[in-house]
Write a structure and sequence with these properties.
- It contains 8 helices and 5 strands.
- It is an alpha/beta fold.
- It has a 5-stranded parallel β-sheet with strand order 2-3-1-4-5, with helices on both faces.
- Helix 4 packs across helix 5 and helix 6 crosses helix 7.
- It binds P1-(adenosine-5'-P5-(uridine-5')pentaphosphate and magnesium ion.
- P1-(adenosine-5'-P5-(uridine-5')pentaphosphate (UP5) binds next to helix 1, helix 2, helix 3, helix 6 and helix 8.
- Its cofactor is Mg(2+).
- Keywords: ATP-binding, Cytoplasm, Kinase, Nucleotide-binding, Nucleus, Pyrimidine biosynthesis, Transferase.
Length: about 190
């Protein structure tokens, strides 16, 4: 018999919108597996002798998007290795290339439940990332120069993906400017 499909929630929103923070809370309360595409890419970049390390670092610093073959393979491998069935996929798909590559590689294996969208203005996003950088995040993209590019990519490449899912009535939009606990109070309604 065919194995059951992976249940997936995509988690999208600008740089520093709070995707990772809210995903951690969802995991704690609802037991999903949290896969951050950015974290998987940073992990891959850090592997000694990684074939894609330099390419990944260049994209991250420039706020541009890594080719889908790399990201999608990291996601699929992590999904399989988890031997679980409910996933939060954080920070993906970010552009048309991601969307098409995912649909081709994973479309038949996945049930997309909804898209959780953390809506957060540029100023708030930027300040959070700058604060995180100042506090020693060590992220090579938590600086003003990278943040401008990250936000450009978000507006030009990722917003159209959110609109694509909006047309399918799959987007659940959260006001991400509030405090983490206030945001989660709304988020948990979606998962209960
Ligand atoms: N914070 C969180 N919530 C807060 C709140 N409600 N109020 C006040 N402060 C709040 O939070 C960011 C910071 O804000 C933290 O210090 C937190 O304490 C605070 P976090 O939860 O980390 O936000 P998140 O949305 O996860 O921010 P992140 O920086 O991770 O978002 P990005 O989307 O920019 O980063 P990501 O890691 O997803 O991607 C990085 C890069 O990887 C991309 O730019 C791209 O180059 C590459 N990438 C790809 O190429 N392809 C992919 O598919 C994914 C990534
Ligand atoms: Mg994150």
């Amino acid at each position: 018999a065919m194995a059951s499909k992976f249940n997936v929630v995509f988690v999208l929103g600008g740089p520093g919108a709070g995707k990772g923070t809210q995903c951690a809370k969802i995991v704690e309360k609802f037991g999903y597996v949290h896969l951050s595409a950015g974290d998987l890419l940073r992990e891959e970049r850090a592997k000694p002798g990684s074939e894609y390390g330099e390419l990944i670092e260049n994209h991250i610093k420039n706020g541009t998007i890594v080719p889908v073959e790399i990201t999608c393979s990291l996601l699929e491998r992590a999904m399989k290795e988890s031997s679980k069935n409910e996933f939060l996929i954080d920070g993906f798909p970010r552009n048309q290339n991601n969307l098409e590559g995912w649909n081709k590689q994973m479309g038949e294996k996945v049930n997309l439940k909804f898209v959780l969208f953390f809506n957060c203005p540029l100023e708030v996003c930027t300040q959070r990332c700058l604060d995180r950088g100042a506090a020693g995040s060590g992220r090579s993209d938590d600086n003003m120069e990278s943040l401008k590019k990250r936000f450009d990519t978000y507006m030009n490449a990722t917003m159209p993906i959110i609109e694509h899912y909006e047309a399918q009535k799959l987007v659940r939009t959260m006001d991400a400017t509030k405090g983490p606990d206030d945001i989660f109070a709304e988020v948990e309604n979606l998962f209960s």
